[in-house]
Write a structure and sequence with these properties.
The protein is of the alpha/beta class. It has a domain of 189 residues: Rossmann fold. Helix content is 35%, strand content 22%. It has eleven helices and eight strands. Strands 1, 2, 3, 4, 5, 6, 7 and 8 form an eight-stranded mixed sheet that branches. The longest helix has 20 residues. The termini are far apart. The C terminus is likely disordered.
Length: 279
């Protein structure tokens, strides 16, 4: 608890990140990862291995962009730094522990971005979704883009905010959480370089007898192509969130996303579409 309070005080974060609870959530994720190090390591190791294998197969390795870098436990940072001329880590919050770890690594730069592109719109500070990756998409030196366990994290803060702000929500598309998922997939499809997507897609809640109590679609119904591989990630083993419940996520990986996959928006622009309150 003291460590979390210290991180909250010391972490540089945009007002929007604090307003939407994303700084708090980033710190909670870091803390849970420490507590569940043993349970999470197989998932994190598999993510690191996939990213390293994808990177090793590329003919050119100038710049790699990692979206949703978080604490970077699932990212093979040393391998990427050794392989690429430049490594760009993109997230809305970068905790001091990561900054300290990287302070001597000249190849790494940190970008703070709202990867939903929607938070200023939600807050009434913009008239539509803003394109969060336009500059990186236009950068012809990006040879690899990794979306790392980010996709499912784009919808929940939006869904929570809409629920807590019904008056403002009435003026926004009712399917905005799903749109945030689709927008990100479209953003990935716009990159010219190789794209690797790793994301949890489903949550299953089980009791100690093994009975499934709830099953949740983390993609909010947005269609995804057939994954290359999948595995289970015990996000909250028994005792973490509840004494008699465990929460296990299905994780999928697409080693070459975007080239063969059509835009989930069907050609719509990912920015500037205000939609309607009825979606």
């Amino acid at each position: 608890m003291l460590a979390e309070l210290a991180l909250r005080a010391l972490s540089p974060a945009a007002p929007m990140a604090r307003r939407f609870g994303l700084l708090k959530e980033g710190i909670s994720l870091w803390s849970r990862g420490r507590r569940q190090r043993k349970a999470w390591e197989p998932h994190q190791a598999r993510c690191r291995a996939i990213i390293a294998e994808v990177a090793a197969a590329l003919p050119r390795r100038r710049k790699v962009v990692v979206l949703g870098s978080g604490p970077a436990r699932d990212i093979p940072l040393e391998t990427l730094c050794a392989s690429f001329d430049e490594v760009v880590l993109v997230d809305i919050v970068h905790l001091p522990l990561l900054r300290l770890k990287l302070w001597r690594q000249a190849k790494v730069s940190l970008l703070s971005r709202d990867l939903t592109g929607a938070m200023a719109w939600l807050a009434g500070e913009a008239g539509s979704r803003q394109d969060p990756l336009a500059d990186l998409i236009a950068d012809g030196s990006v040879d690899l883009v990794v979306s790392a366990n980010l996709l499912s994290q784009l919808a929940w803060p939006v869904a929570d905010w809409l629920e807590d702000n019904p008056a403002r929500a009435a003026a926004l598309p009712c399917d905005l959480p799903a749109r945030c998922i689709a927008w990100h997939l479209d953003d990935l499809s716009r990159f010219k370089g190789h794209v690797c997507l790793i994301s949890d897609v489903e949550m299953v809640e089980r009791d100690r007898e093994g009975a499934i109590r709830e099953r949740l679609d983390l993609t909010h119904g947005v269609a995804l192509p057939k994954e290359d591989e999948s595995w289970l990630w015990p996000v909250a083993p028994f005792g973490e969130a509840e004494r008699d419940r465990e929460y296990v996520h299905k994780v999928c990986a697409w080693r070459r996303f975007g080239i063969e996959n059509p835009s989930p928006l069907g050609g719509e622009s990912p920015a500037g579409d205000e939609g309607s309150a009825t979606g």
